[in-house]
Each structure stands twice: as structure tokens, then as C-alpha cells.
UniProtKB/TrEMBL annotation:
Family from the record: Belongs to the SURF1 family.
Source species, domain of life: Bacteria
Main subcellular localisation: membrane
Transmembrane segments: 218-238
Membrane-topology annotation of the record: Multi-pass membrane protein
Subcellular locations according to the entry: Cell membrane; Membrane
Stated name of the protein: SURF1-like protein
Keyword entries, A-Z: Cell membrane, Membrane, Transmembrane, Transmembrane helix
């Protein structure tokens, strides 16, 4: 009755089904891991953003690698901006996806140490072969607030570190590299400034990191597993249909053979 399953066509179809089932199950598991990772990341970011602000020296120090639990924590810093040694970070976009620069200005703390401050985004007006016009920060001693960020690396960001850039332009924000350039003691990581808020001609402040769409991965996980469950069901439906069609064809053939000849 099911001898047709040994035909070349059905053997291939069955093998394809047997491959698709574990493949779809594994894709669902991968989406599950993505959902868990994104959910954990969103929880960490939310907890960090809502934590009580602390002095930056309490979370980082020279040579310190900012951890995932420290990242995005709101910190404060008091000192004087060193505008003579500020640089700009190339190929950065704002909330409207316009390409420009991030302004990275050293803040000399009251104890002489330095913390790097990303003051925000400015447009890339004209050629990017020279140092752009940068709005100045407040003069004198200031207290700022911002999100603590980890040093940028090519491995983590995907941004290539290019050589031969124009003067005072960089690709990645890295405290160790800036410490060598400044010949100063620089705290690990950097601050993404959020206060005082931008006014007038000051750089456009960077928006908060927001949350990743973890429920989308959860939906994909369910979708892949439903597909995996549908494959054997679909295979069985096709088998039953093939059996029915063959049975009906055999019955018609038999009826034709037994029909009496016309007189």
C-alpha cells in the first residue's frame, strides 16, 4: 500500500524533510539564545540608566576595562575641559542618520586625572580633511553628568582603525590610546555627556541606547518551531494524498478491465 515511498521521488522528499526538521529546531534554539541575550542586555541597560548617579572615579580608574554591569551607568565628573587637546571621531551619525563627528574633549579632574568626554555630534560640513569647527564647552570648572561607556575596539564595534587620518581626527574612542597621546593619566572608558543639556551652538547630545527588540526574536523562535512541527504533518498529508490518488487510479483501472465488452 505504501510501496511508493521507495520511489526515487519520495526518498528524496523524505530525506529533505528529515534534514529540515532538526535544522528548523536549531534555528529556533538560536533565536531563543538571541532573545535571552537581548532581554539580559535590555535589563542591564535599564538598571544602569535608572541607577543613582555616582562620581566617575567610583566606577573606573586608569587602565580599568568598563564591565557590562558598569556600562551606561550615570556618572558625574567635575573638572575643566581641555579644548586645546580635544579631537573628533570620524563617521558618526546622529538620530537622523546624518554623517558627522563626535566631539571628544578631555576633562581634567580636580585631582589631575583625565576622563574623556564625548560631548555629542556635530555635522561634517564640507571636506573632512581638516579639523572642523567645534562649538566650545563651558569655560572654567564645570560638573557634567553622563553615561559611562567602555573603550571602543574594532572587534567590538566593527569600525576599522585607519592610519594617516587628518590632524586631531580618530576612528575609535579608546582611553589607552588617548592616554599615550595626551601623556596623562586617563580613566578607563569614557563619558557620553547628557547634562548640562545642549544649548544653542553646542554639540547635539547622543540619544540614550534604547532597548533591543527581544520579543521579535521570541516570535521567530516560535515560528521556526512551528515550521519544524509542520514538516512531518505536511509529509504525512502528502503521503495520504498520494495513497488515495493511487488507490482511486487502481480502482478505475480495475473497473475498466472488468467492464463487459459492448455487443
Amino acid at each position: 500500500m505504501y510501496r511508493f515511498l521507495l520511489s526515487r521521488q519520495w526518498v528524496i522528499l523524505t530525506l529533505v524533510a528529515l534534514v529540515l526538521i532538526p535544522t528548523m529546531i536549531r534555528l529556533g534554539i538560536w533565536q531563543k539564545h538571541r532573545y535571552e541575550m537581548r532581554t539580559a542586555r535590555n535589563d542591564l541597560v535599564s538598571a544602569a540608566l535608572h541607577a543613582k548617579p555616582v562620581p566617575v572615579e567610583r566606577l573606573t580608574s586608569p587602565g580599568h576595562a568598563v564591565t557590562s554591569s558598569e556600562k551606561y551607568r550615570t556618572v558625574t565628573a567635575t573638572g575643566t575641559f581641555d579644548t586645546d587637546r580635544q579631537v573628533v571621531v570620524r563617521r558618526r551619525t546622529n538620530s537622523d542618520d546624518e554623517v558627522g563627528f563626535h566631539v571628544l574633549t578631555p576633562l581634567v579632574l580636580t585631582d589631575g586625572k583625565v576622563v574623556l568626554v564625548n560631548r555629542g555630534w556635530i555635522p561634517a560640513n564640507g571636506a573632512q580633511t581638516s579639523f572642523p569647527k567645534v562649538p566650545p564647552p563651558p569655560a572654567g570648572k564645570v560638573t557634567i553628568k553622563g553615561r559611562l561607556k567602555a573603550d571602543e575596539t574594532t572587534a567590538a564595534s566593527g569600525i576599522k582603525e585607519l592610519k594617516g587620518l587628518p590632524d586631531r581626527q580618530i576612528m575609535l574612542i579608546n582611553s589607552e590610546e588617548q592616554a599615550r597621546r595626551l601623556h596623562a593619566t586617563v580613566l578607563g572608558g569614557y563619558i557620553e555627556q547628557t547634562a548640562p543639556e545642549s544649548k544653542g551652538d553646542s554639540p547635539e547630545q547622543i540619544s540614550d541606547p534604547g532597548s533591543e527588540d527581544a520579543p521579535l526574536n521570541y516570535a521567530y523562535m516560535i515560528q521556526w518551531w512551528l515550521f519544524a512541527a509542520a514538516v512531518p504533518v505536511g509529509w504525512w498529508v502528502l503521503v495520504r494524498r498520494e495513497r488515495r490518488d493511487r488507490t482511486e487510479a487502481a480502482a478505475k483501472e480495475q473497473a475498466t478491465e472488468t467492464e463487459p465488452a459492448a455487443v
